[in-house]
Amino acid sequence: VQLQAFGGGLVQAGGSLRLSCAASGSTFSINAIGWYRQSPGKQRELVAAISSGGITNYADSVKGRFTISRDNAKNTVYLQMNSLKPEDTAVYYCNAGQIDRYSGSYYYTRGGYWGQGTLVTVSS
Q1: Using one digit for the tens of pLDDT, what is the confidence trace for 15-25?
Q2: CA–CA dist 120, 124 (Å, integer)
Q3: pLDDT tens digits for range 85-96
Q4: Buried b (16+ CB within 10 A) or exposed e, 84-106
Q5: What is the largest CA-CA distance in the chain?
Q6: How far is CA 40 from each of CA 90, 93, 94, rounded to the nearest angstrom?
Q7: CA separation (Å) from 32 to 24, 76, 96?
Q8: Alpha-carbon gap, residue 69 to 65, rounded angstroms
Q9: Contact between 35 and 47 (Cβ < 8 Å)
C-alpha cells in the first residue's frame, strides 16, 4: 500500500483547506484511513478517520470544523478543514489502519503505512 498526501498550504485563520490522501497498491486490504497531525514539540495525534464502510471518528478539537470523506472509485480520502485556527498548524499525515467497535464506540488503530505528510500553516 502506498499513500500520498497533498493539499496543504498557507491559509489565514478562519479559512479552509482540503487535504487529499490517494491510495495505491493493495487498496482492497485497507480497512480505514486516518489523518494525523504533528506540530513541533508535540506527539503525532489522530485528527479524523474513516472506514471503508463510511464510519467516521474525530478528535474533539476538530469536531464541527473538519469533515473526512472518501471516494472509493478514486481510492482517495479527503479532509475538509474549515474555520481553521493557528493551533491547527502542523504537518498532516494519512495512515492506513483499522476502525473497530468496542462497547458501542468506534476506535481507530493506526497501521504501518503512512503518507509523506503535507504542511498546513494557519496564520493569525
Answers
A1: 999 999 999 99
A2: 13
A3: 999 999 999 999
A4: beeebbbbbbbbbbbbeeeeeee
A5: 41
A6: 8, 14, 18
A7: 14, 11, 6
A8: 13
A9: yes
The label of the residue with cell 492506513 reads: 96
Query: In this structure, are residues 12 and 49 in contact, taking their beta carbons and an 8 Å threshold?
Result: no
**Under a CB-based contact definition with an 8 Å cutoff, are residues 78 and 71 in contact?**
yes
Quick one: pLDDT at residue 63?
Answer: 97
Cβ 116 vs Cβ 19: under 8 Å: no
pLDDT value of position 29: 83
Task: Say which residues have a Cβ less than 8 Å from residue 24's Cβ, sequence separation at least 6.
Answer: 1, 2, 4, 75
Distance of CA 105 to the CA centre of its chain: 19
DSSP assignment, residue 88? Answer: G
